[in-house]
């Protein structure tokens, strides 16, 4: 019998049954028979039949052939509407504020635009002890920032080589990466760890940790980072940063491999 968390049970019985039937259909890749749905739900076949037929009328369920059912296209249409209305900026604000409260350092949200990242949001206060150099709307080359290197890490080898030819000569500090083998080595490590670091590569005295934010298609669409004076950068922040980015990614529909 299909069960769900009792704290999530609707107060109206028929709605509870609708949710149960939809969840059963969602757990099967192939159409499911009326008999099997009845057994899994614990509901009488006539009750299941009546509810499913009403859902077929609304296109929430499809009835491809006699005796079997599957989820309908109306759910896909509604899902796409939700997806288009979710803003990475909007869903990032609360996790960013929570991360800032824990670290008391600037927390940055950035996206990619060509060979650069663009800062689209920042949560910080004057007590962090660090002057914010790049305001919202500011930009920087990918290989000079933690989030930028994350974006590069998911490019193809050909794209990375082409970027290096265009941009590696443009460095800001003595720590900036200037050679392709060094860049490739660091990007390989980033792919293994899912975490990147800017070690005074953009601004002297300032270092960052960065992680990626992924959408429902598994594509990195933004990045989250913590900036701090280098002597204050705390390795314990890495897990906090990854937790925040995972929360944002899940809200956007991302499911890591093996996740339910």
At a glance:
The protein has nine helices and nine strands.
Strand percentage lies at 15-25%
The number of helical runs is: 9
Give the class from helix and strand content and strand pairing.
alpha+beta
* Domains, number: 2
Low-confidence stretches: none
CATH superfamily of the largest domain: GAF domain
Q: What CATH first level of the largest domain would be assigned?
A: Alpha Beta
| Distance separating the two termini | 19 Å
Largest sheet: 6 strands, antiparallel
GO molecular function: DNA binding; DNA-binding transcription factor activity
InterPro entries: GAF-like_dom_sf, HTH_MetabolicPath_Reg, Tscrpt_reg_IclR_C, Tscrpt_reg_IclR_N, WH-like_DNA-bd_sf, WH_DNA-bd_sf
Domain HTH iclR-type: 12-73
Pfam family, one: HTH_IclR
Characterization of the model:
- By secondary structure, the chain is an alpha+beta fold.
- It has helices spanning 13-26, 34-41, 45-57, 73-85, 88-103, 146-153, 157-167, 180-193, 237-251; strands at 32-33, 61-65, 68-71, 107-113, 116-123, 139-141, 196-199, 206-214, 220-229.
- It has 2 domains: 13-82, Orthogonal Bundle (Arc Repressor Mutant, subunit A); 86-252, 2-Layer Sandwich (Beta-Lactamase), CATH 3.30.450.
- It has 9 helices and 9 strands.
- α5 (88-103) runs antiparallel to α9 (237-251) and α6 (146-153) crosses α8 (180-193).
- The protein is elongated.
- The two termini are 19 Å apart.
């Amino acid at each position: 019998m299909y069960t769900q968390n009792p704290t999530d049970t609707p107060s109206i019985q028929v709605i509870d049954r609708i949710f149960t039937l939809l969840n059963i259909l969602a757990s099967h890749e192939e159409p499911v028979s009326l008999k099997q749905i009845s057994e899994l739900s614990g509901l009488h076949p006539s009750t299941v039949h009546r509810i499913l037929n009403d859902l077929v009328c609304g296109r929430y369920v499809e009835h491809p052939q006699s005796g079997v059912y599957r989820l309908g296209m109306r759910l896909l249409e509604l899902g796409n509407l939700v997806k288009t209305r979710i803003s990475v900026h909007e869903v990032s604000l609360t996790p960013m504020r929570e991360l800032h409260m824990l670290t008391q350092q600037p927390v940055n949200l950035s996206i990619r635009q060509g060979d650069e990242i663009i800062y689209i949001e920042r949560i910080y206060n004057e007590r962090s002890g660090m002057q914010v150099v790049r305001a919202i709307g500011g930009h920087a080359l990918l290989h000079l920032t933690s989030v930028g290197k994350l974006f590069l890490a998911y490019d193809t080898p050909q794209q990375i080589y082409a970027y290096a030819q265009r941009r590696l000569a443009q460095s800001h500090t003595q720590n900036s990466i200037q050679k392709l083998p060094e860049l490739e080595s660091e990007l390989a490590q980033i792919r293994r760890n899912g975490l990147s670091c800017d070690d005074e590569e953009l601004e002297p005295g300032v270092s960052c940790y960065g992680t990626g934010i992924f959408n429902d298609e598994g594509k990195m669409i933004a990045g989250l980072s913590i900036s701090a004076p280098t002597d204050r950068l705390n390795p314990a922040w890495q897990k906090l940063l990854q937790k925040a980015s995972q929360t944002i990614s899940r809200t956007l529909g991302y499911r890591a491999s093996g996740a339910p």
